[in-house]
Amino acid sequence: MKTILVDAINTFVIKGEGVFNKMYELLEKYPNRKIILTNANDEEVKKFGLDSMPYEIFTLKHVPDKISPEYYKAMLKHFDLISKDVVYF
């Protein structure tokens, strides 16, 4: 079963509003493991409410940011996943 990777800010979390409820309701229809991906550092985690998400959070605190392939390599290694076993949006 594939793990669902979800981008945090402006995808799962809308700035100033919180969790995008329609997306949450959709994700809850699937039994798959869900992980929220973010660049957020500790201050940003609190600022955007990422410390109270319904799913696991992964961040490298901007070192590097998600634009780097190294971010995704580190995330896959951290969770002991392989790329063919995940879907990301």
Keywords summarizing the entry:
24% strand, alpha/beta, two-stranded antiparallel sheet, 27% helix, single chain, flat, 89 residues
Provide an overview of this structure.
With 89 residues, the chain is α/β, with parallel strands linked by helices. It is built from three helices and six strands, in the order E-E-E-H-E-H-E-H-E. It has one domain. The chain has helices spanning 21-27, 42-47, 69-79; strands spanning 3-7, 13-14, 18-19, 34-38, 56-59, 86-88. The longest helix is centred in the last third of the chain and has 11 residues, at 69-79.
Total helix count?
3
Question: Would you identify the regions where 5 or more consecutive residues have pLDDT less than 50?
Answer: none
**Strand-pairing-aware structural class:** alpha/beta
Instruction: Profile the largest sheet.
Output: 4 strands, parallel
Average residue pLDDT: 97
Number of strands: 6
* Radius of gyration, whole Å: 13 Å
String of helices and strands = EEEHEHEHE
Q: What is the percentage of strand-forming residues?
A: 15-25%
Strand order of the largest sheet: 5-4-1-6
Helix percentage: 25-40%
Ends apart, CA distance between termini: 16 Å
Fold blueprint:
Layout: E1 3-7, E2 13-14, E3 18-19, H1 21-27, E4 34-38, H2 42-47, E5 56-59, H3 69-79, E6 86-88
Quick synopsis:
The chain is an alpha/beta fold. Helix content is about 25%, strand content about 25%.
